[in-house]
Structure formats: C-alpha cells, structure tokens
C-alpha cells in the first residue's frame, strides 16, 4: 500500500475503503452466486439481496459522511512503465463528492428494490441463480463510472 496516496481534506482514511466496499459487495455477490453452490433450500435471490442490502447500508453511511462536505479523492498508480525516454505513469482514482455519492446511492436503492421485486417474480424459472448473479453485477459499471477519475 505504499503507492496509495489519499487526499482526504479533513476526513479519515476509511472513506475511500468504504466507497470501495460499496462497489465490491455486489461483485462478491456475483462471484458467490456463480461459483459457490448453495443448498437447495437457500434462495439465491435472498443471498444477492443480502449483499446488495449491506452495500446499501454502507452507501447510506458514506452519503451521510460526504454530503455537503469537502470532496475526498483517492488515487493510486495503476500502470507504470519505465523506459529510456522517460517513465509512463497512468494513475487511477476515485472522487467522492456530492454528485458521485448521490448517484451511487440512487442506483443502489433502485437496484435493491428491483432485486426484492424479482425474488418472487422469477420464482420457478430455470436459470434463477444465474439471473440473480447477473442482476447483482449489472449496476457495477454505473458505480465505477460515478466514482472513477483519471489523473
């Protein structure tokens, strides 16, 4: 973690990790539902909704910390190529401000409601597990685009 640099402007260092947790929990749900077999009596829809609900709770906490406060930016060195003519560095990071946190929270609330609705709607379908794994993964690109900055 030496190449991580946090510019927190009055916040503790846990906010970028909290934002990362909000984004990665649905990805863990996707991986869990695709690669780990659960018992017949465990509903994959409830597992996906539990991961999304936990991400929603973290997003609300993040929203309450960031709203009407100074922006938080975290950057890290993504690609570093050394050459004789000079170094090529590509940095990535994410920006936590009012707009990005609100957008992620809005998408997460809508995704969670859709998840809860489709538990009963998709009952009895042949590819129930696959549907919920893909449904958990579908808002991930929107969240990444909401947070992502290039430096």
Q: Can you lay out the helices and strands and say which pair or pack?
A:
Blueprint: E1 4-7, H1 14-35, H2 44-66, E2 72-82, E3 87-96, H3 98-121, H4 128-137, H5 140-147, E4 148-150
Antiparallel strand pairs: 1-2, 2-3, 3-4
Outline:
With 151 residues, this protein is of the alpha+beta class. It has helices at 14-35, 44-66, 98-121, 128-137, 140-147, and strands at residues 4-7, 72-82, 87-96, 148-150.
What does this structure look like?
58% of the residues lie in helices and 19% in strands. It is globular and about 60 Å long. Helix 1 runs antiparallel to helix 2, helix 1 (14-35) runs antiparallel to helix 4 and helix 2 runs antiparallel to helix 3. It is built from 5 helices and 4 strands, in the order E-H-H-E-E-H-H-H-E. The protein has helices at residues 14-35, 44-66, 98-121, 128-137, 140-147; strands at residues 4-7, 72-82, 87-96, 148-150. Mean pLDDT is 79; it is low at 1-11. It has a domain at 13-68 and 98-142. With 151 residues, the chain is α+β, with helices and mostly antiparallel strands. The chain has a 4-stranded antiparallel sheet.
Summary keywords:
19% strand, globular, 5 helices, alpha+beta, 58% helix, 151 residues
What portion of the residues fall into strands of 2 or more residues?
15-25%
The unreliable regions are 1-11
Mean pLDDT: 79
Binned, the helix content reads 55-70%
* Total count of strands: 4
Helix count, DSSP H or I runs of 4 or more residues = 5
């Amino acid at each position: 973690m030496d190449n991580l640099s946090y510019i927190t402007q009055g916040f503790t260092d846990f906010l970028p990790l909290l934002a990362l947790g909000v984004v990665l929990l649905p990805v863990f749900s996707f991986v869990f539902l695709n690669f780990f077999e659960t018992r017949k009596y465990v509903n994959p829809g409830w597992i996906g909704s539990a991961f999304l609900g936990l991400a929603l709770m973290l997003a609300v906490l993040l929203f309450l910390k960031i709203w009407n406060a100074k922006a938080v930016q975290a950057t890290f060195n993504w690609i570093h190529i050394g050459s004789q003519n000079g170094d090529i560095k590509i940095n990535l990071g994410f920006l936590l401000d009012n707009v990005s946190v609100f957008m992620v929270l809005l998408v997460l609330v809508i995704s969670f409601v859709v998840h809860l609705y489709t538990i009963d709607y998709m009952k009895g379908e042949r590819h129930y597990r696959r549907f919920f794994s893909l449904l958990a993964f579908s808002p991930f690109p929107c969240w990444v685009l909401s947070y992502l900055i290039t430096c």
